[in-house]
Amino acid sequence: MGQNSSSYPQVILMGLDFAGKSTLLAKLLTGMVMETSPTVGFNAGNLELDKKTSLTLWDVGGQRGMRTNWKYYLDDCRALVFVVDSSDSTRMPEAHKALKKVLSDERLEGVPLMVLANKKDLPNCMTIREVSKKLDLRSYTDRLWEIQACSAVQGLGLQQAFISVNKMIQRS
Fold it and tell me: Where Mg(2+) is bound, by residue (predicted)?
C-alpha cells in the first residue's frame, strides 16, 4: 500500500478487534469502503495530508491473541491512534485495559494519543465525553491527547483527526 515508510512519521492504529481500524485505513487511503476481515499482522500505507505532509499509518490486528504483538510496532511510533467502537459500551472496560497496557510501554513515553470514537453513524453510540470517561483519558497527564468522533464507513472526521495527529506530532 505504500512507498518507503521510513521517510514519514510513523502513526500506529491500535484498538480492539471490530473497532474499525482496517475500514478506517482503507477509507483514508482509497476513499472507498472495502470489505475487511480481522487483521492478522498489520496493514500499512502512507496518508498524504497535503503536498508537503505525509504520515505512515500502521493498522495492527486487535484480536486478543494479537495484542501481545503490539509491542513490536512501537519502536518508531510518533503518535498512537487508538480506535474504539463507540456503539459497543460493553467492550469499553476491555478497551480501557488494552489502552492502559500499551501506553505503559516506555517507548510510548510522551507520544501523543488520538482516540477515535468510531461508528458515530450507528444508533445509540456513546458521546466522546462518555468514551473519554470510560477510557479515563484525563489520567493521561504526561502526554498530548485528543478524542474525536468519526465514522470510518462514511469518512466523517477522519481527515480532521489525522491533521490533528500531525499537529500533535509537531508539538511533542
Answer: 22, 39
